[in-house]
Amino acid sequence: MARIDAIMRAIPLPIFVLVYVLACVWAIVFAAGMADAQDGEAGAAPETGIAPRTTVLQGADAASEHVHESHEMAGMPVFGDPLQDIVVDFELVGRDGGTVTAEDFRGRHVLLGFGFTHCPDVCPLMVLNMGKALRDTGNGAVGIFISVDTERDSPEITDQYASRFGERMIGLSGNVSQINAAASNFKVSYVVTKTQNNYTVQHSANVFLIDPDGRLVDVFNFSTPGEELAAAIRHGG
Length: 237
Description:
Elements: H1 2-10, H2 13-43, E1 54-55, H3 82-85, E2 91-93, E3 99-101, E4 110-115, H4 122-137, E5 142-147, H5 155-163, E6 169-172, H6 176-185, E7 190-194, E8 199-203, E9 206-210, E10 216-221, H7 226-234
Parallel strand pairs: 4-5, 5-6
Antiparallel strand pairs: 1-7, 2-3, 4-9, 7-8, 9-10
Helix pairs in contact: 4-7
């Protein structure tokens, strides 16, 4: 401490004051620059060219939500009477570029779920359970994974992703209008939101069981074990 005092006494007062003022100015400029950088980051649009969009839950009474990573809507309970509210209908695009509709799966049980291939946790668990259920039943049932990320998930990419979880798992995609229509029919909510350097998708994640006549039998949470899904298929009509 004595050495520091000696050094400070040795510095002429005008120089000491000048150094002190410059240090204060530098601190203020640095703080302002950091604030501007953070504001710019928060307001920047995602560099993907994708516009934020939302499919609204018609008449939904949002209840408790599972929060996982950025997918805040995953596991949102199905509202009202799902057997009456949900319309089993879609017109999407398959791996080969051809049109695929709900009618193409008549005569087979279907497990169907919405998500996207960059999903870090919920979607892989959901599709894993779907694939396990199909292996356990062995009755020709099929699993359908519909991507809500039209910017990154082409039909081919979506199908490649889904098929990794089982040979009877298929992936479908489409343009924004097609995905919005399918999501609206199944009362699925999703929204594209920006992150620091990219974007992600918040979405509700349920598994829909459809019988061979194209009727909705039941709706499950994304984390429902494959054994439970398989049992539902066997007793689902």
